[in-house]
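Q: What residues go here?
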């Protein structure tokens, strides 16, 4: 490692490490927001709403996997994961879904839940918090420099 890094006060090194970690996390959350925002916009503009039947529900300790079956616009019967369907659903239940007819394999979402939009908004809120934390850490670093 660079000897200049070793010469830094351990407290400054901790602040710099925290700043890097927060910036990496903010960048990751920006990517999450961008992806889910794109999916939400696609579903809002091109999405088709239809009825689907729940054919399989796998419940795990930290979530669930809900598979629905429906007839797509082209007449094909499709089974695909519903990314925002409630884990409370059971096999045989009916649910209103929204899907992109150009990319059915990418999954569908509950028409009333709008999961991709919610994830995008959550990710943007996380970015705001992380950038605030980065600003605070930068301020502390500048303050550390003047006191040393």
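A:
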């Amino acid at each position: 490692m660079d000897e200049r890094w070793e010469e830094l006060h351990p407290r400054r090194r901790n602040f710099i490490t925290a700043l890097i970690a927060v910036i990496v996390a903010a960048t990751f959350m920006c990517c999450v927001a961008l992806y889910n925002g794109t999916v939400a916009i696609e579903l809002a503009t091109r999405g088709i709403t239809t009825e689907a039947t729940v054919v399989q529900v796998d419940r795990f300790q930290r979530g669930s996997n809900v598979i629905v079956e429906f007839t797509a616009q082209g007449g094909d019967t499709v089974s695909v994961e519903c990314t925002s369907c409630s884990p409370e659903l059971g096999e045989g239940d009916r649910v209103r879904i929204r899907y992109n007819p150009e990319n059915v394999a990418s999954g569908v979402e509950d028409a009333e839940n709008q999961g991709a939009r919610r994830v995008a908004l959550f990710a943007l809120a996380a970015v705001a918090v992380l950038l605030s934390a980065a600003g605070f850490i930068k301020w502390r670093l500048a303050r550390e420099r003047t006191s040393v």
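A: Context that may help when evaluating the design: The two ends are 23 Å apart (CA to CA). Strands lie at 48-60, 63-71, 77-82, 94-99, 109-110.
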